């Protein structure tokens, strides 16, 4: 019979309130503890394990789907291999982690790789974390554009991935435009790119237009910054090794917003 909760609750209740009513309230709280109503503590203890599982799922799925997209048109180009290798370098993957990434990439290239099954398990692991799924899709768009060309097979692969993750064709097209503009904007920083061209890219980075009100632009900017906040994404399941991409994204979003506000 569990009595320690009731006993300690009675004593603490009496010590704090100096009366029998407080002691009885303390005993009631202790009684709930004895009955196991404090199971939330164990839930919190297990939350770290769930986070690690999401991070592992994100890591492995990222590189396996990379391999799938690279093979989408029937041939893995040297540009796509270089992109995957450079991406691993950017994440500072070494030793066992790099081997896991390479193994996942190879699995994605194999003829018996089940894209839909892999994405179904991945989505289940991520739950309803839309911003985490969105970042995953952004990474795959970068892979598809690794050689500077988005062919029909790669576009179809992206549409399949987006659909499996719950994104509409319209959302994917908008994300594609934002990603292309982001690359142009990022490359244009510190170069001789015209201010007008830089401004046009900045609008597309945020997914807004020159006709969008200042208030809506500001709200969109805040929403995008929140969605790509590295610490928030890691807490939701982004592997810590992949924080760099989120950091770069937030820097581009902030820079684009500053260009727009200066020209408003």
Distance between the termini: 71 Å
Structural class: mainly alpha
Strand content: under 5%
Q: Strand tally, please?
A: 0
Low-confidence runs of at least 5 consecutive residues: 1-47
What is the approximate shape?
A: globular
Estimate the mean pLDDT confidence. 77
- Count every helix, treating DSSP H or I runs of 4 or more residues as helices: 13
Q: Helicity, in percent?
A: over 70%
The main sheet comes to: none
Tell me the domain tally.
2
What is the string of helix and strand elements? HHHHHHHHHHHHH
Radius of gyration: 25 Å
What does this structure look like?
The chain is mainly α and 264 residues long. It folds into 2 domains: 4-38, no CATH class; 43-262, no CATH class. It contains 13 helices and no strands. The protein has helices at 4-17, 20-34, 40-70, 78-90, 95-109, 115-126, 130-144, 152-165, 169-188, 195-206, 214-227, 230-236, 243-262. It is globular and about 50 Å long. The termini are far apart. The relative contact order is 0.10.
């Amino acid at each position: 019979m569990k009595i320690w909760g009731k006993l300690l609750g009675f004593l603490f209740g009496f010590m704090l309130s100096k009366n029998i009513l407080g002691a009885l309230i303390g005993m009631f709280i202790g009684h709930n503890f004895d009955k196991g109503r404090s199971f939330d503590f164990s839930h919190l203890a297990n939350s770290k394990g769930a986070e690690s599982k999401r991070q592992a799922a994100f890591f492995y799925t990222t590189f396996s789907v990379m391999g799938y997209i690279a093979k989408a048109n029937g041939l893995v180009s040297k540009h796509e291999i270089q992109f995957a290798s450079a991406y691993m370098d950017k994440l500072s993957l070494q030793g066992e982690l790099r081997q896991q990434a390479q193994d996942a990439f190879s699995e994605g290239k194999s003829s018996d790789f089940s894209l839909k099954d892999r994405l179904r398990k991945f989505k289940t692991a991520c739950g309803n974390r839309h911003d985490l799924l969105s970042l995953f899709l952004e990474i795959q768009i970068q892979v598809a554009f690794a050689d500077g060309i988005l062919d029909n097979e790669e576009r179809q692969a992206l549409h399949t991935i987006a659909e499996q993750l719950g994104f509409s064709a319209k959302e994917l097209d908008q994300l594609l435009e934002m990603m292309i503009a982001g690359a142009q904007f990022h490359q244009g920083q510190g170069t001789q790119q015209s201010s007008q061209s830089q401004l046009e890219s900045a609008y597309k980075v945020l997914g807004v237009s020159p006709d969008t009100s200042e208030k809506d632009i500001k709200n969109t900017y805040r929403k995008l910054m929140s969605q790509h906040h590295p610490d928030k994404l890691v807490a939701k399941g982004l592997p810590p090794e992949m924080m760099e991409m989120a950091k770069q994204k937030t820097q581009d979003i902030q820079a684009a917003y500053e260009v727009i506000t200066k020209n408003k």
